[in-house]
Amino acid sequence: MLAELDTIRTEGIATLEGISDETSLENFRVNYLGKKGRLTTVSAGMRDVPPDQKAAVGAKLNEVRTALTAGIEQRLSSLQAAKDAESVKGIDVTLPGRPARSGALHPLTRIRDRAIQTLRRMGFALADGPEIETEWHCFDALNTPADHPARNEKDTFYLPDGRLLRTHTSTVQIRTMESAKALPVRIIAPGAAYRRDEIDATHLSVFNQLEGLYVATDVSLADLKGTLEYFFQDTFGPQTQVRFRPHFFPFTEPSFEIDIKLEVKGQEARWIEIAGCGMVDPAVFEAVCKSRGDKLFDPEKVTGFAFGMGLDRLAMILHGITDIRHLIENDARFLSQF
Ligand code: DAH
Prior knowledge:
By secondary structure, this protein is an alpha+beta fold. It contains twelve helices and nine strands. The chain has two domains: 2-87; 107-335, 2-Layer Sandwich (BirA Bifunctional Protein, domain 2). It has helices spanning 2-17, 22-33, 38-44, 51-87, 107-121, 135-138, 171-179, 221-236, 282-292, 311-319, 326-329, 332-335; strands spanning 125-126, 132-133, 164-165, 185-194, 206-216, 241-249, 252-262, 270-280, 303-310.
C-alpha cells in the first residue's frame, strides 16, 4: 500500500504539471481527492492494514494528500497569475495615472452662500417667496403706482391670468410682513428675478438678487449704514470703501444707492454701484396693515430698513467676469477656473 501511495503521488504531481486550465484542474481534484477519487479509494484499504503498520501507512496517506492539495493550490495560483498577466498585456503600468477632476461650486452659488453666511451672523433669517407673483405684491404694496414704467408690458413678463414673474425680490418683504407673528422682522431673501431686458454682456432676462429687510420699533438709518458697510467689507475685504448716494425707490424714503470702491487684481480701483437701500416707506407698512387687518406694522410705531442687490453683479465684480452670459452657459472652460 505504501508503494501504491508513492505511485499516486508521483503520477499526480506529474499530471499537475501538464494542466493548463482551471476546468482540468478541478477534474484532477475530483479524480484524486474526491469521494471516489484514487486517494480516497486507497484509504478505504486502511481497514485491512495490519495494526503494526497502520501508523506508517496513515502518515504516508496524509503526506500524499497534503502534497497533492498543495500542488493543486500552487497550480491554481499560477494559472490565475497567467490569466491576470494576459488581461493587462499591452498596458504600461509605469505610465502616470489620470487624476480624477474634482468639481467646485458655481461662482454664483459661492457668493450667495457667502452673503447668507455673513448676514445670518448679524441675525438675519432666510426667507423665501414665489417667483410667480401678483401685481399687488410686486408693485402696489411696494408703493409703485399703476403708471410706473416698471409695470409696463415692455419691461415685465405677465401671465395671461394677470400674475407676473417677479421683477425683484422686494416681493418677499411684503410676503414676510404679511405672515409675521411678531416684531422684529429681520430677513434676507436670495432668489431669481425676471425682466424683459435685451440680453447683452450685463443683462439677462433672469438674474439673481438678494433682498434684506429689518423692521422693529427703533430701526434707524445708522443701523442701515452700519449693517451694509460691515457686509460689504466682509465680502470684499476690509479696505473696501462704501458710499451712500441719495436716490429714489418707491418703497423706501429716504433711498440710497450704494457704491463700493474696491481693489480687484488687474483692475483700476473705481466706484461701482452695487445695491439699493433705504428706510421702509410708511406707505408700505400701510399696505401691509391693510392686507393683514391688524396694526402690527403700524407706520406710526415701526421703522425699518431694506436693501437689495444683484448677486450676478457681485460675482462678476469679485472675479473680474466681463460677460454675465458666462454665468449661465455651463462652459467647462469658464467654470473650471473657480
Ligand atoms: N428692488 C430694487 C431693484 O430691483 C432694489 C432695491 C432697492 C431693493 C432699494 C430694496 C431697496 O430693498 O430698499 O432694483
